Amino acid sequence: MADAFSVDLNCDMGESFGAYHMGNDEAVFPYLSSVNIACGFHGGDPAVMRKTVRLALEYGVAIGAHPGLPDLQGFGRREINISADEAYEMVVYQIGALSAFVTAEGGRMHHVKPHGALYNMAAKNERLAMAIAEAIYRVNPELRLYGLSGSALIKAGTTRGLKVAHEVFADRSYQDDGTLTPRGQQGALITDVDQAIAQAVQMVKERTVMSRQQLPVGIQADTICIHGDGAHAADFARSIQETFHLEGIAISSLFKH
Fold it and tell me: How far apart are CA 88 and CA 201, in angstroms?
């Protein structure tokens, strides 16, 4: 029996830098269909970028750039008051850096997904969202923009003529307006594996997610993000893959769609 549903499963990768090791990337790769590779601002460095691109090509997953704010100490999760021009320049710069490694290794870049605070800021701020969409379009209009489902970033990408992917999160809780619960608030992260997987299944099959206020919020799940920097990331990814198989949900990249 053919799978009734299909979704992309993505993970943020290559966020180690210098002497600092983040996550266990290689253990998570077998369960994914796309990856978002850090470009040196919030994490990553040239050696890590090259290694992660090679792994992505080895495992046959779609490659995306993961540009963030220039904040290594805060891992790109602290808001910085940047202008639209600065957002544009940061995104062009970081796409260019990763694109060079992808080209050098004989691959092709598929998408761009902003990281952390930049992602959340652009989900609400239309000027930042348009600047990011413009940066992607100017570099390569064939690149797909990954953004929070139904957000200003998705709308900006569509307006600019980019292909977009509505992204949802298995291990994050939601607010009534469809935004993610800020990491500083209690309950922002879903640590119960069964609860996170059940939420992922609901988002794909029912196109809704329960908010922290226990109200159903309509979403579109083109791609699901799991986080690779947790101690049990590989086990979580494997559990999602196994549950999706039982639920008739295929894991497939958006590369050819």
Answer: 35
